[in-house]
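Data availability (excerpt). All sequences and predicted token strings are deposited with the supplementary files. A representative entry, GapR-like DNA-binding domain-containing protein, is shown inline so that the format can be inspected without opening the archive.
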Amino acid sequence: MSTIGHNGGEDSDDRLRLLIERVERLEEEKKGVSDDIKDVYNEAKAVGYDVKIMRNIVRLRKIKPDDRREQEMLTETYMAALGMI
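Structure token line:
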């Protein structure tokens, strides 16, 4: 019979259980944060902000300025090629 973990035995079983429990706690925290973010977007929508645009801005702010400029330039190039601008 094969054992779980590199050392096998009861210590490995305890270690595995602790790791699984940590992941479960983190998943719960992630769900809580996700719910909080959703609440903020709902609040923004309630006062008249466009949530789709806000999400786009949040995504863009994660990108380095040089990379963002390159993406914008390529997007404009593609749009022009398709007659969209």
